[in-house]
Amino acid sequence: MAEPVTICEVAPRDGLQNEAAFVATEDKVRLIDLLSATGVRYIEAASFVSPRLVPQMANGGDVLSGIARRSGVVYAALTPNLKGYEAAMTARANEVAVFAAASESFSRRNINCSIEESLVRYRDVCRAAERDGMPVRGYVSCAIACPYEGPVVPEAVCRLAVALLDMGCREISLGDTIGVAWPEQVEMLLDAVLRQVPAAVIAGHFHDTHGRARACIRKALELGIRVFDTSAGGTGGCPFAPGARGNVATEKVVQMLSDEGYETGIDMGALEKASALIAQLLGRPA
Fold first, then answer.
1. Catalytic annotation on 158?
2. Disulfide: which of 82, 175, 268, 270 matches 141 by Cβ 3.0-4.6 Å?
3. pLDDT tens-digit map of 175-208
4. In order of start, what are the domains of the chain with their CATH numbers?
């Protein structure tokens, strides 16, 4: 029997957040409904951040209200603070995510506070989530390098991963935010992190800026990681990370995993329909 790997589909949030042309609510709903039909069990559907800073995400509540929810699918929302958490609760998100950066410069550019200040905010979110029975996922961005500071030491990532787990996050996604990682760097990072955190609660989040994301995923698989964030159509990028390009494409990762004997439970035909819709919405070749 093939070993399972979990795919977390991030196209509706991370995939679209940096697009200049606003994607209408009904189109995001269509996209999420198509993704729900693929067999994926986790969809990052919305983000309750400042609409002034990330206008593409301003309609998150309407999107979550409009989707046809499928049993067994988690519809998650990114929440930077208690205000965002409360909005996600109102919109009936199944899970919330908090996002810290392993770089001070990126933390200040991305969420306008220091790393320590961000952890204080997230403790408040996690306390509220525990009260409400809401699962929380944690992200550590710039896990390999920062667009402002350059290489990031693994120890900084370890510290954040442990802090997020201690405050109640069920899983930590380590992000190569600008897509510069080589497999050897992924190995160094995971060698450090896995001394303190079990592989079962770590996910990989790779951008494909230089075409090395799948090689990095293979290395992470060798080291026991079985959860990966991907984006249908390879869309994505961060407004606060100059030079960052798309997330690794879900369809490419699913095909790679299938070829190498892993099982994702995702239907490639259904996934291709979702990817084609993204290309249509963004005016790109399918």
1. no
2. 175
3. 999 999 999 999 999 999 999 999 999 999 999 9
4. 3-282 (3.20.20.70)
